[in-house]
Amino acid sequence: MADSTAELDEIHNIYVQNSLMRALLEDVLRHPH
């Protein structure tokens, strides 16, 4: 049970990181420097 919970946490963390990266990339593309 603990293993699956840790696995879900890891998947969630990866998903959040991907979302943040996508937001950053979209912001950069929207406002090129």
Task: Describe the protein's topology.
Layout: H1 2-30
Rg from alpha-carbon coordinates: 14 Å
Query: How would you sum up the global shape?
Result: rod-shaped
Got a strand count? 0
Number of helices: 1
Oligomer: single chain
Stretches where pLDDT is under 50 for at least 5 consecutive residues are none
Helix-and-strand structural type: mainly alpha
Task: State the separation between the terminal residues, measured CA to CA.
Answer: 48 Å
Question: Can you give the mean pLDDT?
Answer: 91
Q: Quick one: biggest sheet? A: none
H/E element sequence: H
The helicity comes to over 70%
Report on the structure:
The longest helix is centred in the middle third of the chain and has 29 residues, at 2-30. Helices cover 88% and strands 0% of the residues. By secondary structure, the protein is an all-alpha fold. It has one helix at residues 2-30. It has one helix and no strands.
Give a quick set of tags describing it.
33 residues, mainly alpha, 1 helix, 88% helix, 0% strand, rod-shaped
Task: Provide a compact summary of the structure.
The protein is built from one helix and no strands. The chain has one helix at 2-30.
